[in-house]
Protein backbone atom coordinates (compact mmCIF):
# COMPACT_ATOMS: atom_id res chain seq x y z
CA UNK A 1 0.00 0.00 0.00
CA UNK A 2 1.30 3.40 -0.91
CA UNK A 3 1.92 5.77 1.97
CA UNK A 4 1.52 8.89 -0.14
CA UNK A 5 -1.34 9.95 -2.36
CA UNK A 6 0.06 10.52 -5.84
CA UNK A 7 -2.76 12.91 -6.72
CA UNK A 8 -2.01 15.12 -3.73
CA UNK A 9 1.70 15.64 -4.33
CA UNK A 10 1.45 18.00 -7.32
CA UNK A 11 -1.24 19.86 -5.41
CA UNK A 12 0.98 20.38 -2.34
CA UNK A 13 3.85 21.41 -4.61
CA UNK A 14 1.58 24.05 -6.10
CA UNK A 15 0.44 25.17 -2.64
CA UNK A 16 4.07 25.64 -1.57
CA UNK A 17 4.89 27.54 -4.77
CA UNK A 18 1.89 29.80 -4.37
CA UNK A 19 2.98 30.53 -0.80
CA UNK A 20 6.38 31.60 -2.16
CA UNK A 21 8.24 28.53 -0.88
CA UNK A 22 10.46 26.38 -3.06
CA UNK A 23 8.97 22.87 -2.98
CA UNK A 24 12.03 21.01 -1.75
CA UNK A 25 11.69 17.29 -1.08
CA UNK A 26 11.73 17.91 2.70
CA UNK A 27 9.09 20.64 2.54
CA UNK A 28 6.80 18.51 0.36
CA UNK A 29 7.25 15.52 2.71
CA UNK A 30 6.43 17.63 5.79
CA UNK A 31 3.52 19.30 3.97
CA UNK A 32 2.14 15.81 3.24
CA UNK A 33 2.29 14.94 6.93
CA UNK A 34 0.66 18.24 7.90
CA UNK A 35 -1.94 18.72 5.21
CA UNK A 36 -2.54 15.13 4.04
CA UNK A 37 -5.61 14.65 6.23
CA UNK A 38 -8.20 16.61 8.18
CA UNK A 39 -7.27 19.86 9.97
CA UNK A 40 -5.03 19.32 12.98
CA UNK A 41 -2.89 20.89 15.68
CA UNK A 42 0.67 19.67 15.92
CA UNK A 43 3.75 20.58 17.94
CA UNK A 44 7.23 20.52 16.44
CA UNK A 45 8.07 17.49 18.58
CA UNK A 46 4.98 15.60 17.40
CA UNK A 47 5.75 16.35 13.75
CA UNK A 48 9.35 15.29 14.30
CA UNK A 49 8.32 11.88 15.61
CA UNK A 50 5.75 11.46 12.81
CA UNK A 51 8.44 12.29 10.27
CA UNK A 52 10.67 9.61 11.79
CA UNK A 53 7.86 7.03 11.59
CA UNK A 54 7.34 7.95 7.92
CA UNK A 55 11.08 7.63 7.22
CA UNK A 56 11.41 11.33 6.55
CA UNK A 57 14.81 12.03 8.07
CA UNK A 58 14.87 15.62 9.28
CA UNK A 59 16.31 17.18 12.41
CA UNK A 60 14.10 18.85 14.99
CA UNK A 61 15.76 22.16 14.03
CA UNK A 62 14.65 21.67 10.41
CA UNK A 63 11.13 20.89 11.63
CA UNK A 64 11.08 24.15 13.61
CA UNK A 65 12.40 26.13 10.63
CA UNK A 66 9.89 24.56 8.24
CA UNK A 67 6.96 25.11 10.61
CA UNK A 68 7.94 28.77 10.99
CA UNK A 69 8.36 29.17 7.22
CA UNK A 70 4.91 27.63 6.66
CA UNK A 71 3.54 29.94 9.34
CA UNK A 72 5.11 33.05 7.82
CA UNK A 73 3.77 32.00 4.41
CA UNK A 74 0.25 31.83 5.87
CA UNK A 75 -0.14 28.05 5.55
CA UNK A 76 -0.26 27.46 9.31
CA UNK A 77 -1.44 29.33 12.33
CA UNK A 78 0.69 29.29 15.48
CA UNK A 79 -1.08 28.95 18.81
CA UNK A 80 1.19 29.60 21.78
CA UNK A 81 0.05 27.72 24.87
CA UNK A 82 2.86 29.02 27.08
CA UNK A 83 6.36 30.38 26.69
CA UNK A 84 7.81 26.98 25.84
CA UNK A 85 4.99 25.32 23.91
CA UNK A 86 3.41 26.20 20.58
CA UNK A 87 1.04 24.30 18.37
CA UNK A 88 0.72 24.76 14.65
CA UNK A 89 -2.80 24.69 13.32
CA UNK A 90 -3.52 23.69 9.72
CA UNK A 91 -6.82 25.56 9.99
CA UNK A 92 -5.85 29.22 9.54
CA UNK A 93 -9.43 30.48 9.78
CA UNK A 94 -10.56 32.58 12.73
CA UNK A 95 -11.30 30.34 15.75
CA UNK A 96 -10.27 29.74 19.36
CA UNK A 97 -9.05 26.72 21.35
CA UNK A 98 -9.50 24.59 24.40
CA UNK A 99 -6.15 23.32 25.65
CA UNK A 100 -6.49 20.00 27.48
CA UNK A 101 -3.65 20.38 29.96
CA UNK A 102 -3.28 16.75 31.06
CA UNK A 103 -3.40 15.46 27.47
CA UNK A 104 -1.49 18.33 25.85
CA UNK A 105 -3.91 18.64 22.98
CA UNK A 106 -6.06 21.35 21.47
CA UNK A 107 -9.74 21.30 20.60
CA UNK A 108 -11.23 23.94 18.31
CA UNK A 109 -13.77 26.47 19.54
CA UNK A 110 -15.78 28.14 16.75
CA UNK A 111 -15.11 31.89 16.57
CA UNK A 112 -18.83 32.54 17.07
CA UNK A 113 -18.77 30.75 20.47
CA UNK A 114 -16.61 33.47 22.01
CA UNK A 115 -17.93 36.99 22.43
CA UNK A 116 -16.06 39.95 23.82
CA UNK A 117 -17.89 42.54 25.82
CA UNK A 118 -15.09 45.02 25.40
CA UNK A 119 -11.71 44.96 23.76
CA UNK A 120 -9.15 47.69 24.33
CA UNK A 121 -8.31 50.04 21.47
CA UNK A 122 -5.05 49.09 19.80
CA UNK A 123 -2.17 51.35 20.91
CA UNK A 124 -1.73 54.48 18.80
CA UNK A 125 -0.54 53.67 15.30
CA UNK A 126 -1.35 49.97 15.61
CA UNK A 127 -4.15 47.69 14.46
CA UNK A 128 -5.42 44.48 16.04
CA UNK A 129 -4.57 41.56 13.75
CA UNK A 130 -6.47 38.87 15.66
CA UNK A 131 -7.41 37.76 19.14
CA UNK A 132 -6.45 34.26 20.29
CA UNK A 133 -8.34 32.75 23.17
CA UNK A 134 -6.97 29.59 24.80
CA UNK A 135 -9.31 28.11 27.38
CA UNK A 136 -7.33 25.72 29.57
CA UNK A 137 -9.20 22.63 30.70
CA UNK A 138 -8.46 19.35 32.44
CA UNK A 139 -10.48 16.24 33.20
CA UNK A 140 -12.95 16.84 35.98
CA UNK A 141 -12.23 14.68 39.02
CA UNK A 142 -15.23 12.83 40.41
ZN1 LIG B 1 -7.55 25.08 15.71
TrEMBL record:
Domain of life: Bacteria
Keywords: Cytoplasm, DNA-binding, Iron, Metal-binding, Repressor, Transcription, Transcription regulation, Zinc
InterPro entries: FUR, WH-like_DNA-bd_sf, WH_DNA-bd_sf
Keyword Zinc in record: yes
A matching Pfam family: FUR
Keyword Iron applies: yes
Coiled-coil portions: none
CDD domains: Fur_like (cd07153)
PANTHER family: FERRIC UPTAKE REGULATION PROTEIN, ZINC UPTAKE REGULATION PROTEIN
Description of how the protein assembles with itself and partners: Homodimer.
Protein name (record): Ferric uptake regulation protein
Species of provenance: Devosia rhodophyticola
Lineage: Bacteria, Pseudomonadati, Pseudomonadota, Alphaproteobacteria, Hyphomicrobiales
Gene name, Swiss-Prot/TrEMBL: fur
Amino acid sequence: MSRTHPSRKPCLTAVLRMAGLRPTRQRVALAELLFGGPHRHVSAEQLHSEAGLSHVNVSLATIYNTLHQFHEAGLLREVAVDASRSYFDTDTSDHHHFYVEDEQRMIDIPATDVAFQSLPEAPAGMVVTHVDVVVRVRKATA
